[in-house]
Amino acid sequence: MKKDIISSVQIASSFLGSLIGAGFASGQEVMIYFGAFGRAGAAGVVICALLTALLVWGVCRLLKKSGARDFSALAAFACGRLTGRAAGVVFLMFSFVAFGVMAAGFGESTAQHMGIDRRIGALFFLIIMMLVMRAGERGVVAVNVALTPVMTAAVLIVSVCILRRGGIDVFGGALPAAGSAVLYTGYNAILGVAVIAGLSHLVRSRRVMVMSAALSAGAFGALLFILYLLTRQNYAALSSCGIPMLYAASHLHPWLGHVYFAALLMAMVTTGACCGFSLCGALGVNMRRGAYILPLCALPFLLFDFSQLIAHLYSLFGAAGAALTAVIIIRAAAIRRI
């Protein structure tokens, strides 16, 4: 029982670490995919949480059944060899894009909060990634287990403080909130599935599957709902900011801004570490070599605006991720015995 709990916490922490990155903690993702839909956005949050629970459960179940140890093997088992290869290519592309977006978000955060040139801040992020990736799988898991609870607590504390200061406005949306929630879950699934696949040895029992799913969906859904409420307080003002949540926290009180700034940096480090770990595993590259190669390849992302990367690049992968999520859930549900 104790081992199952520890394994579940490790899986959930790593999964959350891959999701709560620059786009989420900054508020950009929540504003684009939920906040713009007003009250309907709340239904989108519920849909996203339910899909997340089913996704984590489904991935764990397929890993236990197939014995897969990485994303490519899992995708081949769930989708077939040819489709699995295509999913593997999409995963590699998205993981690399996500890694670059984390660098851009780190730079944007340091520029907004400290007045440092965003390219210098992004370079500092890449140096941190080199150090974390050199430590291998243990380093990635340790970073997520250590930083995810602290990061989550910081986001919650700051969010509650801001919520107590204002009312809630309602805004309309151009697209159905449910479809937006599916799209959001889809692109998050690409990296999240790969992270769990890399930790397949932790999926020891059905209890681990259920607890991992409950912890992941519960924590992610709660954070998502709180940030959704916050983005509706002053949508017009926040939508013009590169890092909306950092602006809101700093505007309320300087120390809240410092706390949220630290949480943002943690979020980007955890997601960046998950991207690096997953990419190296899928490509069969030694983590120590990848620690130098991947940051160098991500340098071009420093030339682009963070909010534009979130709005355009992430959405491109949403449909593919949504299809993968559906296949995983259906395939897992069809398994009778493990």
Task: Give structural notes.
With about 350 residues, the protein is mostly helical. It has a single domain, classed as Amino acid/polyamine transporter I. It has 15 helices and no strands. The longest helix has about 35 residues, at about 80-115. The radius of gyration is 19 Å and the shape is globular.
Quick description:
The chain is mostly helical. It has 15 helices and no strands. Helix 7 (118-134) crosses helix 13 and helix 7 (118-134) packs antiparallel against helix 14 (287-297).
Number of helices: 15
The overall pLDDT average reads 82
The amount of helix comes to over 70%
- Under CATH, the homologous superfamily reads Amino acid/polyamine transporter I
Structure keywords:
338 residues; mainly alpha; Amino acid/polyamine transporter I
Topology overview:
Layout: H1 2-19, H2 22-26, H3 28-33, H4 40-66, H5 71-79, H6 81-114, H7 118-134, H8 136-163, H9 177-197, H10 206-231, H11 235-238, H12 244-252, H13 254-283, H14 287-297, H15 306-334
Helix pairs in contact: 1-8, 1-9, 1-10, 1-13, 4-9, 4-10, 4-15, 5-6, 6-7, 6-9, 6-13, 6-15, 7-13, 7-14, 8-10, 8-13, 9-15, 12-13, 13-14
